[in-house]
Design goal:
The chain is an alpha/beta fold and 379 residues long. It has 17 helices and ten strands. Helices cover 44% and strands 13% of the residues. The radius of gyration is 20 Å and the shape is globular.
Length: 379
């Protein structure tokens, strides 16, 4: 399996032009359609589309998702890199990053060209997805930002909300803010709901798995604060849904108390893994109907990150009769082309499909999943 490293655009250009990728996709298209799949795309789109072919490639990208019968597509809108879809809340990335990183100026200029043309990647995705009747959720990794890439002015104006280094021992350039503060919860709600109001998305998707931590060490009532944040989001989505005459989804990618630290041990430093749990309260999310789809991390293919697969069946049983559907999450499988890893990845995917309501794929595109199935069969 020879998938090139790099950004989304480089991988998709390869998948469209590489014979091996196309043959595997065609051969396993039926198997992919049989799996109930939700795909997550970070939405960075080549860090500014340096080749100038963004709109065309994004349309082909959406076509490929539709080709394999995807349930839904999550398009990343809330990372502070590359694209900003909330002008009423934060200034455009292309207007702020050149102030801090001169080497990103060319990418900022490319984004400005898109915006001046009256379009952006999310608009292109939605236009194409409507042709395929493919639902699109606006994805947000709300609580993680990198100072070096240029952050919205709200963060710079409110340094008092940033978590202390003792509570956030991550990359020295990576920061998180304190969700116990009502101002922070209000900002995150406004930030994400602004996209729902401006675009005809079918709901929101929150990435909690890599957005942690949310609170200072020793903070009491963490779950209460996080639940209150979700109730605010649910209320806003229901309000907009009533106006549109439809139900807008709220989905979350999360871990469980049993697997949160283990499955991410290759990304987070040891001192981070010693932090107390982060306020995740899955039973309340289910019982109150706050979440429509709950993606629970089950397997990660990155170096050192496979960890302990979550037992999905108990959560599926707990959600039975509720509005919440439980999906198993798998990510970064294409990073491990060794035969035994391919078989392991396929086995986990089959197990997830058999025991839960669907499979959530992060950093695994349709052609990559087809190559996993192909490689597992050949070895």
């Amino acid at each position: 399996m020879n998938i090139p490293p790099g950004d989304w655009g480089a991988q998709f250009r390869w998948s469209f032009g590489d014979t091996q990728a196309q043959e595997a996709l065609h051969k396993h298209q039926g198997a992919l359609q049989a799996l109930e799949l939700v795909y997550d795309n970070d939405g960075l789109w080549d860090w500014g589309d340096p080749w100038g072919e963004g709109s065309h490639m994004i349309r082909r990208m959406v076509d490929q998702y539709a080709q394999v019968g995807a349930w839904a597509l999550v398009w990343g809108c809330g990372n502070n890199l590359a694209w900003s879809y909330t002008p009423r809340v934060q200034e455009a990335w292309c207007d702020r990053v050149p102030r801090r990183e001169e080497n990103l100026r060319q990418l900022a200029e490319r984004q400005r060209q898109w915006l001046d043309a009256g379009t952006d990647p999310l608009a292109v995705v939605l236009e194409r997805a409507r042709m395929h009747h493919l639902p699109v959720l606006a994805g947000f990794r709300l609580n993680r930002f990198f100072q070096i890439y240029g952050v919205e002015s709200w963060y710079e104006d409110n340094p008092q909300f940033v978590l202390s280094p003792a509570s956030c021992p991550l990359n020295p350039h990576q920061y998180s803010v304190d969700l116990a503060r009502p101002e922070v919860r209000r900002h995150f709600v406004e930030h994400s709901i602004d996209v729902v109001e401006r675009y005809e998305v079918q709901g929101l998707h929150l990435e909690f798995m890599r957005a942690i931590p949310f609170f200072e060490r020793g903070q009491e009532d963490k779950a209460a604060y996080l639940n209150e944040f979700l109730r605010q989001l649910r209320w806003e989505l229901d309000r907009i849904g009533r106006q549109r005459g439809c139900h807008l989804e709220l989905s979350i990618w999360s871990g469980t108390p049993q697997n949160y630290r283990v499955i991410r041990k290759g990304i987070f430093p040891p001192e981070f893994c010693e932090l107390e749990f982060h306020g995740i309260d899955i039973p309340t999310w289910i019982s109150e109907g706050l979440v429509d789809r709950l993606m629970l991390s089950a397997w990660s293919g990155g170096p050192g990150r496979r960890g302990m697969p979550v037992e999905l069946a108990p959560w599926v049983e707990q959600a039975r009769g509720s509005r919440t559907r439980i999906l198993g999450e798998i990510d970064n499988a294409w990073e491990l082309p060794e035969p035994e890893r391919l078989r392991e990845a396929e086995s986990v995917i089959r197990q997830i499909a058999a025991t839960s309501d669907g499979v959530f794929l992060f950093n695994i595109q349709p052609y990559a999943l087809a190559l996993i199935l192909e490689g597992a069969r050949q070895n």
